Amino acid sequence: MLHLRVVCPSGNTDSVIDLLRTDPGIAHLVVVRDVAIQPRGDVVEAAIARESAENVLDQLTDLGVVGSGEISLDNIDTLLSRTAEDVEAAAPGQPADAVIWDELVATTGEESRLNGIFLAFLTLACLLAAVGVLTDSAITIVGAMVVSPDFGPLAALAVAAIGGRRDLATRAGIALGVGYPFAVLVTVVLAVLGRVGGIFDPTELGQLRTASFIYHIGPYSIIIALLAGAAGMLALTSEKSGTLIGVFISVTTVPAAGFAALAAVAGHWTHCGEALLQLLINLAGITLAGILTLFIRRARVLPHSSRSAEPSGSEPG
């Protein structure tokens, strides 16, 4: 169940109440009159089944609440209520199958912002991957995969493609287009310093065993990227966040970037090109699979939605 809060002018309150009263996915409807200051009006709260949230958000938006007030949704970690259990059972569909489009846009929009934190995590992941390559340590390479924040922009590209959100696509493209070159450049600089200091021996790249998969391109590179992209989008849209860790570990994005930086410093241009191609294949495969998965997921809920794929709410902050 989710916690729904609506802040609206008093003139909209009765319409909001009537809408929520008739929805089978609503429990514990609460109305507090004349408590809102900006806008001056009322606050309406309720517990709502996840599978009903998208349809309710559609109708509240159609009432004009977004333009004059606020609609917010929060997860309820613990809810002890027989009424809520009955409501959730009566709501159409299953909670895991529900796609809340506005929530998805807000989540991917925030995770695809190019900022210092994004650059720091991507650079650290790239450096960890480089260390994992030099030490031929699978554990370190896996750690780099988990640290990398690149799935956020890739998911945002999929959401943008289905929802027609050019602004979201631009944001995600900038994050990837600037983030990866920056991370690789920092890794190159530090690799050069490591070579000068005797820490990095270029001949070590020709003796790899565990890390050799990073630049070996084959049909499985595409298959893994597609499967990981589908799993990632399913996890994102069903709030199975734990599954995302497995997605991060399964794809060769950051490890390929780290290896490409080392190969460039060592002058192994063939391996550098193969690693960069591996990176592009994985990024493209994850995005394509995310688009197809989201298209199928979105198509299943469209009959219950009054809006088009593009939400009419404001751009997430």
UniProtKB/TrEMBL annotation:
Keywords: Membrane, Transmembrane, Transmembrane helix
Presence of the UniProt keyword Protein biosynthesis in the record: no
InterPro entries in the cross-refs: DUF389
Residue intervals passing through the bilayer: 117-135, 141-162, 174-193, 213-236, 243-269, 275-296
Presence of keyword Heme: no
Origin: domain of life: Bacteria
Pfam families in the cross-refs: DUF389
Coiled-coil region(s): none
PANTHER family: AT15442P-RELATED
Protein name, per record: DUF389 domain-containing protein
Source organism per UniProt: Actinopolyspora erythraea
Lineage, uppermost ranks: Bacteria, Bacillati, Actinomycetota, Actinomycetes, Actinopolysporales
